[in-house]
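Researcher: Please generate the 3D structure of the following complex. Treat every line as part of one assembly.
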Amino acid sequence: MIHSFAALDLHISLAAETIFHVGPIAVTNSMILGAFGAVVMLAILFYVAGKVKKGSYNRFVGLVQWMFEGFLKSTEDIIGDKKLARKIFPLAMTIFFTVLITYWVSILPGVGSITVGGAPLFRGLPADLNFTFALAIITIVASQLYAVQRHGFFGNIGRYAKNPFTNPIGAFEGLLEFIGEFSRLVALSLRLFGNAFAGEVLLLVIAVLTSYFSSVVLPFFMAFELFIGFIQAYVFFVLTLIFTSLAVATHGGDHASDDSAHNTTSIDHSSADTPTRAAQLE
Amino acid sequence: MEYVLTQFASTESTSDGGIFGALGIDITMLVLQAIAFLILVVLLGKFVYPVLIKAVDDRQEKIEESVKAAQAAEEKAESAQENIAALLKEARKEAKEIVTTAKDEATAMVEASDKKAKQRSEKIVADAHEQIEKDVIAARKALHNDTIELVALATEKVIGKTMSSNVDDKVIAAAVKEAN
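Model: Done. Output below.
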């Protein structure tokens, strides 16, 4: 078994591999499958939007619309402020759809097994740390932008930088909060990357180990990966909302401006359990 | 197996970008993918999500309207039920009054007809008594006259001559007196 396993020349690489160049830009295997995933996603969503606009529903359109409605409601529940929820929703929803579709297309047969010059032609986009890191940066930057919008520039800085002489515990808490922002960034990107990469490796290893029986065994693992893909997309979606909710929330109203007092109150109330939820999801 | 186990090591050793290079993080790729993703967000945010959000809002509005209409209908039904209950109560009361009145009237009518019937029967009986009385008197008178004629005839035959009516009457009266 070990002999045949080694003989199959299992190709596992942490980084996405360059397949060809377009001018100075290197096109990697993850970008190829990512582009395919993006096209599939756009096709599905534009089809659904067109059908919804015409009012001609079918089961698939109904399913997507039902899911969309559920996510919109979740966003409003988590953020608390409906206006802000509607602002952050396109980003969070696109993260969900992108992660879901690109994760799912990476489970298609041929991914990892079709090679060009020794490197796989296709690789799941979530299994490329560039993509997950980019998503995490966008999420954290967006939450910071909304925090600046809510608290003001100095008000937002005041969340992290507190006078250690008058409020030493608060200053320490602020420092931890600042470090927390980076840990969130790393955790968000590595969680998705780790799951997607491990999923691809798992499918590859199972295919090699089960050899001729792989066509019987692999579908179970593929179904499991579909489930994991959904979970990862949902976790990324919810964490994006929770981080935004935490960023715009105020603790005791120290930095809340008068005009945002009403909204702040509602956010304080609704996001009372967000740190717990974030901890549970993480 | 050895090949698999040495994959990570070889990746790290061949990369010259430190930990980021070993993990495959390339700033150009990262920026490109971030831009591509942001384009997706803008595209979907402009052309897809507004349509779907509008559909959700419309549906929500319809549901709220339906709930309001249902509540209004429920209130209306409750009010109608209360009205019906009040009307039923009123109707029962009126019906009871009508029945009572009808019973009273019927009793009065029965009593009146009883009285009338009694009066009529009494009158019939009185009339009958009167008629009988009259008949008895007429019969007595007829009998009296017949008796007188009979006595006159008998006397005529006995004494053999016809007496004057004056004598007859006196004789007859005496005979009747004797007979009595």
